[in-house]
Amino acid sequence: MVRHVIAPVEELPPGTRKFLTIDERPIAIFNIKGEFFGLLNRCPHQGAALCEGPLIGLAQSSDPGEIEYTKLGEIIRCPWHGWEFDIRTGQSYCDPRRFRARAYPVNVEPGSAVVKGPYVAETLAVSVESDYVVVDL
Questions:
Q1: pLDDT averaged per 10 residues in sequence order, the chain, 137 residues
Q2: CB 90 within 8 A of CB 101
Q3: Distance between the two ends of the chain, CA-based, in angstroms?
């Protein structure tokens, strides 16, 4: 597993999200009340840019006529069909057994740990063959 430094914590205040592409995967990083979560920016239903949807809460009811609104700002609604997913786990509230958005672990680490790595720069094998320099991709 290769670690990727996303941003300084100050650039992602609570309630914000950051979009990026890592290894050709569209990912969004969310700051939910000071905790960070990563989610694949693709709805497992029909492939919409899931993380561009609105952040909402979860409406639950244990008795008729009584609605409790929880997890404010922790649920994302797909902009295409309104399917809802928990940002913390990727769980779908429409069909939790069949659909789950891919969640990625996100950590906050001190700058001293980031400076040390282990980060790997992309390298290419180079060889000299007669009069030609050849790069292997």
A1: 84 93 93 94 94 93 92 95 94 86 90 69 74 62
A2: yes
A3: 21
The whole-angstrom separation of Cα 30 and Cα 76 is 11
- Structural contact between residues 29 and 36, judged by C-beta atoms closer than 8 angstroms: yes
Which pTM does this prediction carry? 0.77
The answer to whether 80 touches 47, Cβ cutoff 8 Å, is no
Contact at 8 Å (CB) between 6 and 19?
no
Q: What amino acid is encoded at 20 in this protein? A: L
Contact, 16 vs 5, CB < 8 A? no
Is the separation of the CB atoms in 20 and 27 below 8 Å? yes
Contact (CB, 8 A) for 26 and 18 = no
